[in-house]
Amino acid sequence: MTDTVAHATAPLARGSDTPATVTMHGGGSGANVAAWLAVDGAEVAFVGRRGADIAGRNRDMELMGYGVDARLVMDPDRATGTCVVMITHKGDHTMLSDPGANAALSPDDLPDDLFTPGSHLHVSGYTLLNIGSRSAVLAAIGRAQRAGMTISVDGASSAPLGRVGAEPFLQLTNGATMLFVEPDQGKVLTGRDDPSQAARVLNAWYPHVVMRLGFDGAMLYSGGRPEPIRVSAPPVERFVDTTGASDAFVAGFLPAWLDKKPAGEALASGCRLAARAVALVGARPLL
What we know:
Number of helices: 10
CATH topology: UDP-N-acetylmuramoyl-L-alanine:D-glutamate ligase
Low-confidence stretches: none
Number of strands: 12
Helix content: 25-40%
CATH class: Alpha Beta
Number of domains: 1
Strand content: 15-25%
Order of helices and strands: EEHEHEEEEHHEHHEHHEEEHH
CATH superfamily: Ribokinase
Shape: globular
């Protein structure tokens, strides 16, 4: 995706003009995770789709610049996806998304060589929630299971998650090893307002559930244990933009978790990268 980030410097003037700083960045949840993983030293491949346009070529080159093994299929008919990120003067953000070529991702786009024992598949929830790309995700999950890979899924965003519905999402992600969610997504999936209760309920569906709590840190429910493992977020010296912070958290958490580090260490590693992300405009690390 290409993110057009409009950061308002004053309260929004409805029906009129508001001064803002507007910048363009690489985006897309899965691609963000891949970029943060690569700059933090992990070996990662990203499978996606882009348009035959300048934006798509730029996104492809960016990912390679981060050190990502970018497996991007060029779509001859659809443009590269675009997201308009509107950030208020208080830091709240709203996104308007056009998935573009992403909506055409198909099972045929999945490279055979990436599904190997000992590897890990991370799925962007956006790809699963979009009906056009859903078959590719389901095929990837099935192939990863047959290869003996571990699988994690992200809850994406509460509004599209709510449109799909809790029961269909839980059924579609059957077989995932781990679920990453935030409190609003947990509420959609369980009806529980309390993040800890929501994560505990979801732990009945997934062996491991990570609840990201923003500036309050994160918690992990694992193996049906009654109490979570919880860590606090590090102090944030400079706060600019929360876009992509959840993706950075995943990138910090997964390598430590897959290396069988203590759960608290993995959570802290996720919070560490998320803290780096909120100090930047846009969802990607600086090249």
